[in-house]
Write a structure and sequence with these properties.
alpha+beta; Molybdopterin biosynthesis moeA protein, domain 3; Molybdenum Cofactor Biosythetic Enzyme, Chain A; Beta-clip; seven-stranded mixed sheet; 9 helices; about 20% helix; MoeA_linker/N_sf; metal-binding; transferase
Length: about 450
């Protein structure tokens, strides 16, 4: 037997992800990517093969390139929307409109505990009551009442529902109102919220907990949604420990535990998380055998003797879309196109620099692949001055206090102490910002109270 949710999904199975992306873009306005670049989002940007001479990309342009790369990938491969059970759909984007499969409510229902009454009072009360979840009760006659529970079906010919606190019974057991009774009061009529076939939510809606509840109430078992982009994580380096205290030049791996839940909060499905030493062959094998939509690497993006990301990209003929970004921390981050539908984001090895790369390149790419709308840009004044880089953007952890943002200490590239206490990252322009100056803020998923807090 076909469930209601499955039936609705089958009717929209031909809608491809790019159509959903287009509708989301049309409804959400321009993505938050900083100042517009020449030609707009749709204009191709010249890129260079791995290893060619280049200049670092500005921070706003790097984010715009990541969005464009995701749109191109969605056009290259027509990914079929997925039919997802409600309990697995949190955070996905609807790829088909949510239309009611039934009237809501589907019958006249009591909005309160009390009595269903017919005609003017006082009323003779039936012995049996009416409970939620039972078949339609026997009709009432004028002068008759019956005990009724919230959500129960209203007996035919009911005039109103009298709340428990608004009625009293006399010594003969007859029911009297203690205030005026208005025809139809405390009855939820059939179809009050919607009629079968009404569109409840459009394509591009994010599946929040409330959306899942509405879908269930409207008769759905599954939702037709844009599938989560799949991500593999490669943690590179010989110097990393997975347990215990640092010793003998070895350090704990902070990115292995941090990146997978952060990527899930950004809407990704995380596949494998692999730790690979400074071995060029192992890096090449891991990159070329992954079938994920996005590969995220940590470390190895500079030009040192054991930095194997660039040589691997050259070997496989990858196209470097971004090779270095004018941002601190995180300058040596990169974005490469491996195939039409596969990309690699190379994060620096320093923890806060890796966070910068994650929010600069991975966030806009994953958000666009998942067809999530871009968050609305907003600014707050900085409580304190923030030193800037002479020519690069800085991303600085802040906490939000009242109507301002307080910059946090411990914001060096290798530090996580500041970001662990932060609500957001402030985007500080070249040259820095003074006290009271407005700064754009990038929310952290868990600080917004939104669906991004669901890491599992």
């Amino acid at each position: 037997m076909t469930s209601p949710g499955t039936r609705a999904d089958a009717e929209t199975e031909d809608l491809d992800v790019e159509e959903a992306l287009a509708l989301v873009r049309d409804s959400s306005g321009p993505a938050r990517s900083g100042p517009a670049h020449p030609g707009g989002h749709g204009t191709p940007t010249p890129h260079h093969p791995a290893g060619s001479h280049h200049r670092a990309t500005s921070w706003p342009e790097a984010r715009a390139i990541a969005e464009r790369a995701a749109r191109a990938a969605a056009r290259a491969v027509r990914r079929t929307p997925a039919s997802v059970p409600l309990d697995a759909a949190l955070g996905l984007t609807l790829a088909a409109p949510l239309a009611a499969l039934t009237d809501l409510p589907s019958f006249d229902a009591s909005a309160m505990d009390g009595w269903a009454v017919a005609g003017p009072g006082p009323w003779t009360v039936r012995d049996e009551g009416v409970l939620a979840g039972h078949a339609e009760p026997v009709p009432l006659t004028d002068g008759e009442a019956v005990r009724i529970a919230t959500g129960a079906r209203i007996p035919p010919d009911t005039t109103a529902v009298l709340r428990t606190e608004h009625g009293r019974t006399d010594e003969r057991g007859r029911l009297h109102p203690t205030r005026d009774v208005v025809h139809g009061q405390d009855i939820r009529p059939r179809g009050q919220e919607c009629r079968s076939g009404d569109q409840l939510l459009p394509v591009g809606t994010l599946a929040t907990p409330a959306v899942l509840g509405l879908a269930a109430a409207a008769g759905y078992d599954t939702l037709t949604a844009v599938p989560r982009p799949r991500v593999d994580v490669l943690v590179l380096g010989d110097e990393l420990l997975t347990e215990g205290l640092p010793h003998d030049g070895l350090i704990r791996d902070a990115l292995g535990p941090m990146l997978p839940p952060w990527l899930r909060a950004l809407g990704a499905e995380v596949g494998s998380v692999r730790r690979i030493g400074d071995d060029a062959k192992a890096v090449h094998r891991a990159v070329t055998t992954s079938d994920a939509d996005l590969i995220v690497t940590t470390g190895g993006t500079a030009a040192g003797p054991v930095d194997h990301v660039h040589p691997t990209l050259r070997r496989i003929g990858a196209e470097l879309l971004v090779d270095g970004v004018e941002v601190r921390p995180g300058h040596p981050m990169l974005l490469a196109r491996l195939k039409d539908d596969q990309h690699l984001v190379g994060l620096p090895g320093n923890p806060l620099a890796a966070v910068s790369g994650l929010l600069t390149l991975a966030e806009p790419l994953l958000r666009t692949l998942a067809a999530r709308p871009a968050p609305e840009a907003y600014t707050l004044p900085l409580r304190d001055a923030v030193h800037g880089h002479p020519s690069d953007t800085r991303l600085v952890p802040v906490v939000l206090r009242g109507e301002g943002a307080v910059p946090l200490h411990y914001n060096g590239p290798a530090m996580l102490r500041g970001i662990a206490a932060a609500d957001a990252l402030a985007v500080v322009p070249p040259g820095g910002a003074g006290p009271g100056q407005e700064a754009e803020l990038l929310d952290l998923p868990w600080a917004t109270g939104g669906i991004g807090v669901c890491f599992t």
